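Work Package 3 committed the consortium to producing structural models of liganded targets before the mid-term review. Because experimental data for this complex are still outstanding, the team generated a predictive model from sequence and the ligand definition alone, so that downstream docking and mutagenesis planning could proceed in parallel. The input record is reproduced below exactly as it was submitted to the modelling pipeline, together with the SMILES string for zinc ion.
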Amino acid sequence: MYSDEYYMRKCIALAKLAEQATDVPVGAIVVKKTTGEVIGEGYNRREAERSSLAHAELAAIAQASQKLGGWRLIDCELFVTLEPCAMCAGAIVNSRVERVVFGAFDHRFGACGSCFDLFSQGLNHKPEVVSGVLQEECSQLMKDFFRKMREEKKAARKG
Ligand SMILES: [Zn+2]
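The resulting structure, written out as tokens with the ligand in place, is given here.
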């Protein structure tokens, strides 16, 4: 079986695809625990699709459900470069993902401990959470992206 770091690197690679479309770089995958197979993947396409629903986790969950032929992601874990927001944490509960592994913390919108913890609110499903896997790389990805955006804005103003 592969390590959490191994799968997080796959998420980082996906996050970089988001960035190409000027979307905040967030990448996610769903892995079948017993086989180690990646059954869903996604990256943030909020700008590309002009939709607040186009988060990486939702795309990965949708693809995994399609692959498994049902909404219950039994025996599945979700990996994502950034702490899931309230919407995605809700989708994780609703799809019964067993384990969530994220990289960087999101102090503005994180719903897995940073702003609050959706999973400890007494809902009928409580996934296991592992945080801070390749944290440095995941947060550097975001920092680089926002710096580049600021520089481009500045250049545009000058030009
Ligand atoms: Zn989200």
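Reviewers should note the following from the model. The helical segments are 4-20, 46-49, 56-68, 86-94, 135-158. These observations will guide the Year 2 experiments.
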